[in-house]
Fold Phosphoacetylglucosamine mutase.
Amino acid sequence: NMASVNVLSLNTLSDLHPKPDTTFTYGTAGFRMKADLLDSVIFRTGIIAALRSKKLGGKVIGVMITASHNPAADNGVKLVDPMGEMLEGSWEAHATALSNAQTNEQVLDYIHVMVSSLKIDLTNPANVVYGRDTRPSGEALVSALEDGLKVLGAQSTDYGILTTPQLHYLTRCLNTVNTPESYGEPTVEGYYKKLAAAYKVLVEGKPKLSPVILDCANGVGAPKFKEFMNFLGDSFAVKIVNDDIENSSKLNLNSGADFVKTGQRAPVGLKMTPQDRCASFDGDADRIVYYYMDEDNTFKLLDGDKIAGLAAMFIIDLVKAAGIDNISVGVVQTAYANGASTQYLRNTLNVPVSCVSTGVKHLHHEALKYDVGVYFEANGHGTVVFSPTALKTIYSTEGSSPAQASAVRSLRALSEVINQTVGDAFSDLLLVETILTQRQWTPKIWDQAYSDLPNRLVKVVVKERSIFKTVDAERKLVEPAGLQDAIDAIVLKFRDGRSFVRPSGTEDVVRVYAEAATRPETDELAFRIGGLVFDFNSNGSGTRPR
Ligand code: G16
């Protein structure tokens, strides 16, 4: 199988992308850091993508250059496997090792290690597609990627500026075109057409809701959603805010899903009245949260947990209404899920709930174990996956009454409107709008399913976040020794108290989550645990949470 690596070309290209004096790690969703440190990493990611494709006999691999919810100065890369999932977990270590090779010779050696240990046939073709978000650093990083792709002679297509979920969609479509599993037309237009057609079926004949006010975080979601509106037409009413992609410093700044979820307040540039229904995308449009203002002007968040609850409730009802009894629904969450949401799912909806580590890659895999798996992180990253058996049932049932037939039609359209490859803010927006339209619900009615326990997220800047090691789906620290005991001792003093600490895999911070019976108790708990972490590993910079 031994075609070999062209060493001369590897050296020449690699010399153009020297490795800085930094140790890289593949994080929650790929490499992510200050954009000016990423050149060599992205170059080598091109090599990894080509190797991955060759390993899979030439299947198309996706590469997305984005730092999603991070500030404008950051960038990063997400790798997409053939069916649109995140890169297989076992390859993350290879990506890390290759990114840390010091010399050209070590890069070559590591390629050889992969070729022999993974039995990669270098004579196989390699096919890679890629895109980027609106960050100004994206263009140069795309050239670095292209150089990396040249090393192993990969065929590639540049899709330009895209949302992350659009690239996941394209990757899956390209790999399934002309097969029974065909996922759709492999173009961005095909993506818009598929989602818009399904949405129109879902809301047909129902009175339209008021326009949703949509905060696009000044990111790629803005131009792309405007494009999408050409396909949604009259079926969808929206008022877009925070759509300035020219002034890149505004990206995610005091806006976007992460800001709204963490700060539990409305983004800049969005004036709410109690009549409004609002939603925020993040910087690459793979997350969404909703919110509204109560009559007494209190801000109310409808986060990923609320979306999961709404979606699970709706799907269970539809399956019942369709007269189908052999499709089971399950929900996957992370430790960040509000305790009240887990109780609602288990005790009111009676669905099984599993808890996994942060990262859609973990949730996605767990969700595939159910006939219909609903997965959402509290931060608004998630989707619904339908198993092949579930789809077969839905498409082979007709329903024996008009009501059943209509429920079946909705289920089919739902499986099309949902981007099953990964969490997708556009698709999740349509999912929520479908349910609210079909039920003629306000966000307040949706919110009444259960009351969130007050909760708070705190970011703590520390000296070395890698010293924090967790187990039990990130709910317990095993290192630094003694810290978990100290946390437990504090939590015990709070009614309904729960708190955990884990290092972020996308930002250089440690995250602290806390919930308790009341708002003041929650804040006190969060700040006491945050202070504890800070004191344990402060680097003298950053501020002690309070
Ligand atoms: C990424 C991942 C999400 C994760 C988030 C935060 O989102 O895809 O699954 O929840 O990072 O991760 P961490 O807490 O490790 O920083 P995005 O939207 O930033 O790509």
